[in-house]
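Protocol step 4 of 6.
Sequence for NADPH:adrenodoxin oxidoreductase, mitochondrial isoform X1 (Sus scrofa) entered exactly as in the expression construct, tag removed. Do not edit the line below.
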Amino acid sequence: MALRCWRWWHWSAWPRTRPPPSGSTQSFRQQFSTQEQTPQICVVGSGPAGFYTAQHLLKHHSRARVDIYEKQLVPFGLVRFGVAPDHPEVKNVINTFTQTARSDRCAFHGNVVVGRDVTVPELQEAYHAVVLSYGAEDHRALEIPGEELPGVFSARAFVGWYNGLPENQELAPDLSCDTAVILGQGNVALDVARILLTPPEHLEKTDITEAALGALRQSRVKTVWIVGRRGPLQVAFTIKRSLDRGSG
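Step 5 output, structure tokens:
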């Protein structure tokens, strides 16, 4: 994998060829069906969607070249920063993504923020095709009273905190109370509850951050309430996740 940071990569290195082809996907494939053409594709976002896109392109077009842009310094997005640390089997897909990234026809460019460092029109000018496969930039506000009070966090921020997402490393949640309340009944809600209740000595075997592990060692949380607006038949978490309640 060609691991390059934006600040080291000059505009002269852009694979400028010609404007992106117009028309349907079929016409795109036909236009690059001859050996003389080398399609240059830009993928914005290095999470699962981005890497599966790159994998498909490299597999089905022997001459395609793919550049993956990511605002973080490291790749893999949600797989790296969203999966609970006590579920390493879910992160095994990183091995597949790494093989894709090691291709001579694939390059990763970290620390690039589209809209700040480069615009979408500039990418369209430089590549035959641009695929936007980035995830949510922020949480969705509930717009309810008290949402902005201290001690209230979005699941996105809390998960990012214990997984080491740089933008959430200063979160510092107060875990000195004995009860935590989680709004939502999805898999992430169960992940957060399980992390809060799992004995720290069991989390030591995972890739949880040292800062989060230290805070959880001092945690006094003993009870977690999971609150949903619907009944138990409408819960969003999977059966497998509901059976995995950790070691606490």
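Step 6, annotate. The chain is about 30% helix and 15% strand.
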